[in-house]
Amino acid sequence: MARRSGERTFGLSNEERFWLVVRKTETCWLWEGTRNQKGYGRFWINGRLESAHRFSSMMAHGPILPDKPHVLHHCDNPPCVRPDHLWRGTNLENAQDKARKKRARSRYQSGECNRIAKLTRLKVAQIRAFIILGVSCEAIAAEYQVSAGLIWLIRTRKIWNG
Fold it and tell me: Number of structural domains, the chain?
């Protein structure tokens, strides 16, 4: 049961304080304390801030080791701290999990998924048609209001190679 406002926590162990801020539902166990901008719980332990789901994983499965430093969610619910919804993974597994769940918000994402992309698949197809017709990179760049270097990268298939 989640802690009521004003309830004292002095003298309680970290684990006891932790569970005061968790509300168990039929599916997820939700952190109802402070959260970061992405919705992950934040919990003070021994003078430092720890992610609530990481602390839950440590209580259930022991210390987090360097070979698998990330604690990931099967349920993909950031405030969930239910131990059987959590698993530990490597940097690569974390990146693959984000991509699989379409949560990766990286400037390195390809195509239209890239948040800073200036072109769409349709525009790239049109650009490639102009390239085949022999139109210069500079002329195409002026038409699409991008740099000639970007057109060159498309032409050489260094980007938008799909």
Answer: 2
